[in-house]
Amino acid sequence: MHGGNLRRAQELYGLETFIDLSANINPFGPPLGVWKSLQQGMADIVNYPDPESQALRKTLSNHLGIPTESIMVGNGAGDLIFTIVQALKPKKVAIPIPTFSEYERAARSVGAEVSYIPLGPEGWTKFNQLDEKSENSSDESDVDQMWREFLKGCDLLFLCSPHNPTGSLLGKDMFERILRLTKELGCRVLFDESFLDFLPDELRQSTRTYIDTNDHLMVLYSLTKFYSLPGLRLGTVFAHKSLLATFDQYRDPWSVNVLAQHAGITALEDLKFPDEVREKLRESTALFYQEFAQCGFSTLRLWPTSVNFALIEVLNHTSGELIQHLGRLGILVRDCATFTGLPGNFIRVAIKDTFAMQRLIEGLKTYYF
Fold first, then answer.
1. Considering the entire predicted model, what is its pTM?
2. DSSP bridge partners of 94
3. Which of 190, 312, 320, 341 could pair covalently with 98 via S-S, beta carbons 3.0-4.6 A apart?
4. Quick check: 320 pLDDT over 80?
């Protein structure tokens, strides 16, 4: 269901080590100070963690410009998704597909009806284009009507941008249109921007700035992926304090352990780290796209992306055969067969260091040439 399962890969391919491109994690590791903070934090494991994560929330507040009372932290974004859904108990939810499977799993766990919004491999691109075309009142009302149909009877809408697995971005105008309509219809919005930090400066705009004037909006933010802390699990949700008070009744008070709290504070305080990571990933992305284009694979299509992962469509072959071939070479990619709403054969690859991307290109060459 998810990438990053190294134990399963070891059992399947009989290898000990892999280049793991199946999980969209920053490949360069956490800020160096995190290792020292974990050593120091070991002395605290004999005590219960602060159930309110006050020091971490204060650091997040200073770093992101969000009031502390509008921040809740959890054991990763997945933990928060389930907590929120358990608290709200929606009757019907709308989910754009393909997307992260935990949205639907959380909704099903409370018996909610699920309505799909088809995006396809283009992701948000075609919706943004619709918004750009709605220059006259007739077109604008058509777009509004389209969303009214999508949201009919729904009391919760999941949105994800940068979108997983396509890497596409929901445009500002379209988002504001959706926000207006959901407020009018009484539908809450859970907006997942777990991959936001991977975006370049000119594209990196958070929806958390809308929280003050939209008490039906909740914004998920992950430290797990960009700060390379998947084993510790650390995520946050920003929302109106009245909503957070409701969520608080449904969460495990000790869901964020002491080491995760220490690591999160230290990671956020390293102000040079984000730009350094983005620069390294720019180099890797440029190399990968250039090498892929030069190979001229006739049976592979690389879809454009704005973040640290990309979709590759496998044409005239099954993606499973390619996945197994790469696995035997010690390269793991994400099988997209489990993404509802993604027709055809796709794999998702994380953008990692230049060595890893060169190995992927070589692996693709040995299969298709």
1. 0.93
2. 115, 157
3. 341
4. yes
